[in-house]
Amino acid sequence: MEQDKSQSIGKICIPGMRLCTATKDRIGGPGTNVLQGYIYATLAGILKSIEDKEKKVTIISVESPTTPSILPKPGDVVTAKVTVVNSRLVHCIILCVGPHLVRPYRGVLKKEDIKSTDKDRIDPYKCFRPGDVILAKVLPLTEIHWYHLTTAENELGVAIATAEGSPQGVNMVPINWSEMQCPKTLVKEPRKVARILPDYFDQNQVISYTDAENDTKLVNGTK
Question: At 218, is the secondary structure helix, strand, or coil?
Fold first, then answer.
């Protein structure tokens, strides 16, 4: 869709579609992301253009009936649920941006972005496990289909976790910045523990979201 924006406004977009070049006078708005000098659509919808006379820029956005009110952006602190851990990457689903619930977005945490020190010796499996709920910060976009995250700061890391073999619904408690323990079985497991700030995390909200997600899976016949 590399053409004059005035000829494109009002057309239907699909996720991943390149809309136009990003310049000082033309920036991406809701429903878009900027990558390598271009504005891309992240939603299916209608291409819109808004003139911000105060900032003297044109805001390119994509609007649809399902457009969320909040999109993760660089610098945002998000709450995410870990889905896959391997030797290089941690995959997760973003549940909240700040205190606000959002539709699920895919996030990825690279090995070198887990901690600020000893980056070459970090074992992701000793920091996170599938099912953990973590706090992370959004990094500048490098891929159109993923939000890249970091937990390098002390305030970021695991917020809720359950040890293998622990009774259902029993969460571990931190005993230091690199370990958590189940209060029932006393089993200890390594984690990159977050120093949680109240402004970043609402445990009740995340638990209710996760419960709703599990209920949906049971209705659909999946585990």
Answer: helix
Helix (H) / strand (E) element for 93: namely strand 89-97
| Residue 101 to residues 69, 94, 194, Cα–Cα distance (Å) | 10, 9, 20
Both structure tokens of 11: 């057309």
pLDDT of residue 213: 47
Q: Tell which residue, 211, 192, 69, 210, has the closest CA to residue 135.
A: 192
Task: Report the DSSP beta bridge partners of residue 136.
Answer: 78
The token pair that represents 87 in the structure block: 């030797």
| 73, 126 contact by CB (below 8 A) | no
In terms of Cα–Cα distance, which of 54, 25, 51, 27 is closest to 39? 27
Tokens of 65: 């009936």
Residues 6-28: tens digit of each pLDDT: 345 667 887 788 888 989 889 88
Give the start-end residues of each E strand in the chain.
Answer: 12-13, 18-21, 26-28, 32-35, 38-41, 45-52, 57-63, 77-85, 89-97, 100-110, 133-138, 147-150, 157-160, 173-176, 179-181, 188-190
| Rg over CA atoms, the chain | 20
| Per-residue pLDDT at 129 exceeds 90 | yes
- Rounded-to-5 percentages of helix, strand, coil across the chain: 15, 40, 50
- Hey, what's the torsion of the CAs at 120, 121, 123, 124, to 10 degrees? -30
Give backbone dihedrals phi and psi of 208, rounded to 5 degrees, phi first: -65, -35
* Closest-CA residue to 33 (of 77, 72, 89): 72
**Positive or negative: CA dihedral 84, 90, 91, 95:** positive
For the entire predicted model, the pTM comes to: 0.64
Tracing tokens 């136009």 back to the chain, one arrives at 20
